[in-house]
Amino acid sequence: MNCTVTDYIYLVRIGYVHRALVNTNDSVADIFERHGCTNHHLSMKYFRNQYGCTPREHRKKEQSKYKT
Predict the structure, then answer these.
(1) pTM, rounded to two decimals
(2) How far apart, in whole angstroms, are the C-alpha atoms of residue 33 and residue 31?
(3) Listed residue (46, 35, 40) closest to 6, CA to CA
(4) Over the stretch 5-42, which tens digit does the pLDDT of each residue have?
(5) What does DSSP assign to residue 38?
(6) Contact 20, 57 (CB under 8 A)
(7) pLDDT of residue 2
(8) DSSP state of 26
(9) What is the largest CA-CA distance in the chain?
(10) What is the distance between the alpha carbons of residues 17 and 46, in angstroms, rounded to a whole number?
């Protein structure tokens, strides 16, 4: 898999965070906390590496896709 255990765990968590960002209106902080991403700096690093933007920016992009 070419990644550490920590990398893998955070990638799985970030996947759940992504789904919650797109499907709920909960705050970004609440979503990260709910999915075990308690280290804010590290969580943001993994999210940016995975999606190329902040969670808030990503939510806006995803929600704008579905607006008519």
Answers:
(1) 0.84
(2) 5
(3) 46
(4) 999 999 999 999 999 999 999 999 999 999 999 999 99
(5) -
(6) no
(7) 84
(8) -
(9) 42
(10) 11
Both tokens assigned to 37: 């991403």
- Are 50 and 7 in contact by the 8 Å Cβ rule? The answer is no
Query: How far is Cα 47 from Cα 18, in angstroms, rounded to an integer?
Result: 9
Domains of the chain: 5-65 (1.10.10)
Helix (H, G, I), strand (E, B) or coil at 12: helix
Instruction: Kindly tell me the sign of the dihedral angle through the C-alpha atoms of 36, 42, 44, 48.
Output: negative
Q: Which residue has the tokens 């992009």?
A: 61
CB atoms near residue 60 (< 10 Å): 12
| Token pair of 51 as six digits | 């999606």
